[in-house]
Amino acid sequence: MSKAHFGLIGLGVMGENLVLNAEQSGFSSVVYNRTYSKTEDFLKGRGTGRNIQGATDLEDFVNKLERPRRILMMIKAGTAIDGVIQQISPYLQEGDLLIDGGNSEFRDTERRVGELESKSFGYIGMGISGGAKGALEGPSMMPGGTRASYDAIESLLKKMAAQVDDGPCVTYIGPGGSGHFVK
Prior knowledge:
By secondary structure, the protein is of the alpha/beta class.
């Protein structure tokens, strides 16, 4: 099987809907959840017949993604995000990008941008509005981080975002934790 365009960590309602949105927007995907039975249930249920594959652990997950890797984390804000970053970092390479789509505190995002950019990984803190329905049909997204990191995912986000008369409901918010601050 070829490498996936997009990766998602966290198969709660928002995560499931966002990965289905990405797949419907033309991006093959790989999903990981810390409880593998949740991944299996998703793949046998809503993920059936779609261009979405599962991963048993973070190394397997990273290895199934094309480079540079684009990874959206839809997990609990706070120490859970820091824990996943610590666990996944050994498998990442220069240019790979982590996106925190949860409701992180903007100062935490500021810190993470600085830490990960110094390791040559991109980091985006992205507010997502629209709830479960928006996640599936097109949310409003507020990405913040370095401009280079945003540029690496702009085409993906523009296809996934809600579409209105004057374009997609996504724009680069600014550096550091600005995306989470605006949310």
